[in-house]
User: What shape does this take?
Amino acid sequence: MAQEKQDQPNKPEPKPRSKKQIAVDQVVHKSGFFYRIFTSPDGKKVLEALEDEFDADEIFKAGEPDTTSYNLGKRDVIVYIRQMIRLKENAKRAELEG
Assistant: This one.
């Protein structure tokens, strides 16, 4: 066993990951859950229903800033879900491209 270690070439130690890289890796990992759920046949139907309900074209309500803010908040959830799906798709593409 000791001989095996001596026969192996010295590999450089991997660089420690930065806090930023750790955070990115965590978000990419989390995006996998969104991807698996919302790209499944049922998940696509759920996302479509959420989009129909919460991603209205008319967000702005003249004279009603609270309603406009509320509508933007609803829409932000849909945008977040789409971003998480795209993040995982891009990560998968990057893995394939090497």
